[in-house]
## 1
Amino acid sequence: MTRTRAYRDGVLEAEDFPAELLSDYLRDVNVTVWMDLCAPAEDDLAMAADELGLHALAIEDAVSEHQRAKLDHYDTHCFLTAYGVKLDEESGILAAAEIDAFVTERALVTVRKSERFDIDAVLARWDSATELGKSGVGYLLHGLLDYIVDGYFSAVQSLDDQIEALEDMVFDDTVDHKEMQRRSLYLRKSLTKLRRVVLPMREVVNSLMRRDLGVVDDVMGPYFQDVYDHVLRATEWTESLRDLVTTVRETQLTIQGNRLNVIMKKLTGWAAIIAVPTAITGFYGQNVPYPGFSQWSGFITSTVAILLIAGALYALFKRRDWL
């Protein structure tokens, strides 16, 4: 599915026109166009390449999947790869959707691998900031990057809340340790994945702000600087959360080890106390004559010995906090 827009002097003039008319609109120097390709076929990309003169290597990267977030420079255009993210709060699993963009002087072509990247939300950003439309491609590119980076913030905020919930569960006596371990693992994997897509965006946005590229004008400069600051904050936040979830996991393991030691200490103490009556009754159960054999005095002696020794051991262990 192909979607298109044409802006004349920053005002939306046409929408959803055939992609074949792209070059016709571009003949007017006052027009900026946008085209979106979702899961395009090779013919669609070939048509875009012919209309805009796109480099073969950029087309190849647009077809390939799992590219690193980057910005490549060619003679007539730039090629950008970025990722939108969405966190499943129920499971703690982060999903990333790749989006590529060809950036020319007066055209922006976005290429999505699937519908998972919500392009309608990007259009809403553009429509809510029409006063910036005269900045052309810079205005369109800012709306796209601003939406992507805001997604990073939403994801990292949700991850922060979930890690705080884990911290509260660490000292809970009734916590499900298996579920907590699973949750910790998923959150750490999500943070690692988020870091992998956020970290390269610093270089991408910083490169776009270079004056020699001509993508960002004086009007859009502060807006791109704001996006760059948000990327830095998201990166730092992600790094700190990765350390925090590791600390939570280590604390949980330490607490489990301490609880196990306490349990083993108590079991050992009770085993020592139980060993006393076992030993004494075993001794008196021998089928040989001994003092008090077959007499009440022997029974009383063994019973008193059991109570005294077991009581002494209990008092000793209790005083040392072994029970």
## 2
Amino acid sequence: MASTTNTSSMKMKILCLTLCSLVLFCSAFTSKDYSEALEKSILFFEGQRSGKLPSNQRASWRGNSGLSDGSSYHVDLVGGYYDAGDNVKFGLPMAFTTTLLAWSVIEFGSSMHDQLGNAKAAVKWSTDYLLKAATATPDTLYVQVANPNTDHSCWERPEDMDTPRNVYKVSAQNPGSEVAAETAAALAAASIVFKESDPSYSTKLLHTAMKVFDFADRHRGSYSDSLSSVVCPFYCSYSGYNDELLWGASWIHRASENSSYLAYIQSNGHILGADNDDYSFSWDDKRAGTKVLLSKSFLEKNAEGFQIYKAHSDNYICSLIPGTSSFQAQYTPGGLLYKGSSSNLQYVTSTAFLLLAYANYLSSSGGAATCGGSKVTAENLITQAKKQVDYILGDNPAKMSYMVGFGEKYPQHIHHRGSSVPSIHAHPGRIACNDGFQYLNSGSPNPNVLVGAIVGGPDSGDKFADDRNNYQQFEPATYINAPFVGALAFLVGNPTTK
């Protein structure tokens, strides 16, 4: 009898181990989980809105803010997004955010289902602002509202801002090619998003993109030189402006199919960085993203002169895939791509998006990435991207979701003024500049949950301490979320990819 019992017990253990291994092999998340994360990743942008909020505002703890932005300079710069946890409107990361949101809709909008409208609204909230910034004055682009040095001396919710709302611009005399070309890219990408649903708006976006790109190209120079005291070190353009010029031209070419932009890319590509491989993609450096974007023309249309972009895209992709001869990326022990100690998840979300966009292009052409003597398939890229997405959502050593409001365990003390200070509904009286620091230094969870916000993320050893003062790990940003919207949309339709 004992022998029979032991045999049965052993069979149960084997069955349990088999089931456990199957669970580990299968996706950590379902299509429903990815759908929830997608909805929340888009909702986050409502918490970052500046200006007069609409009647359908869902992040109800927020109120109107920045309603006089630009007025002292006789321009209307109301609207747009606060980029992160402060109350500054920085043009370069806002434009990049917009480009990536638009690209997410272009590539994966068909998988967004009932969230497509919200995603397009998130794009339009930014493009409405960027249009004003680009058309207020001829040969001028307004690129920032508020002095960050002054803004950062206060800890106050945007509804109470009493620091000066200085306005900064680039012009022929004080150029800013990187911010202007990124703005052109954003407007051009968005014109594709609205081409069918709002043709007149789409046309306006594209025509403005062309004008802004022409301005960026004719008056070459870095805004880090023209506006160094207010953009550096916050959003200094360390990569220069050549990458943005090629990126901007690429997006206008895709949106317009105008042969002059194709000629520009073919004539200037090698000068503007097409021959240089870089292994990160961010608000500052667009080289990897441009090559993946341009590779589509070669893969799907066999366009002459675009083979180089396929080759460089392969180099970028191969650098990320363990086991290839070109592998050079760093991953944490828990499997997270690691590029830097400050806001590392911005590189993770942008990389995951590029992996999936490139996988899409490869799938449509029946191709693969060439890594030395081996081939990497679209399925390999999807697997790698999915690991990064799942890590962010909670499949990691800490069992922590790095998206606020998703899962049972997520950051409670994010570095964000509006989220950490009581809302105007809970505390209607003004909370002055210095009075807000008590909330920065408080050990209590943020009273306003900034649903969908993805924070900077864990360190190189997968460690993460819930500390509001640690902005490197705890500050959310629009450019972290924007590419994640597209990655999640893909996974909504492909949840069980191994």
## 3
Amino acid sequence: MKAKVLALLPVLSAAGLAAHDLWQKNHSLLRNYPVIGHARYAIETIGPELRQYVVASNDEERPFSRHQRAWIYASAKGENNYVGFGTDNNVEDEEGYPIIKHRTFSLTPPSAAPHTGDHVDLPSAKLLGGATRAGPGVSPGVGP
């Protein structure tokens, strides 16, 4: 008798989960595919670990990267879609990424090392100070 009850326990649990999935209103995937839909969410949860060692990086998927797809999913669900600023790409050693080194009012431009000799024109909509600026190192109101 005890063995029959233990054998029925997983079946009853799955039936209860299926009933819950059919009546819930938050996830259409679970409503259309009760019980089995939970496997999709479980695989999505361990996805980063699988991609890290087995499949692909976050940028290799097409037409959208994994980060773009996560932003779209969060936006569609009305969840927080803010993400941290940064990149997984190797922007310092690969070609095609302009590196901007900040320097305020310098007479000599900074070197572009490790990309020495590379020159990248970056368009600018306006000049700081506009046409009234006398030049770097000159105080306003004191002409040359």
## 4
Amino acid sequence: MLSDLQQFSDPDGHGERLGISAAQWSLFGQVWPAGQLLAQAMHRFAIHGERILELGCGIGLASLVLQRRGANVVASDVHPLTEPFLAYNAALNQLPAVHYRQLRWDTPLPTLGRFDLIIASDVLYERDQAELIGEVIARHAFENSQVLITDPGRGNSARFTRLMLAQGYSVEERRCPMNDTDLPPHRGRLLHYSRGAGSGDGNLPS
């Protein structure tokens, strides 16, 4: 992970061409509370050979947990430094390299294929992210599938849930603390969406 939120280096302009500003550059390289919550959920989530996609993986904590469990996981992000950071973090944890694909949410990537479970943390940070993530799920989720999102209460989860309901998913929501000072009713949310037969029992990981 990066040592602080000020580190920035984009000498060839790759990040800028991807729409990543200097202010956003270091955001991927931190362990965020919602990312920790997602990793904890993936530690407990029932895995039965599903093909799993993590969106906006950052340093890939949840994907690394799944890799440790032997899951079939693909990590994805748009940041140009995500792949080397992910490989380094896997090596630090004595794990095989996690399968990684660079993915822009506004650009179709047909070769990515479809997944049984799509996961993400803190991806609803702007109003239009709900539509973008919804479109990614429509392109890459099997008919019988699950989606699990951890959100720190930024205010766009209700909009996202409406879009998921329109895609035929049911939703189960749990309020979760984001840190030790987040007292009930907690601002964090663990959102579990299920669609189709065989997509799970609809219960969030305990």
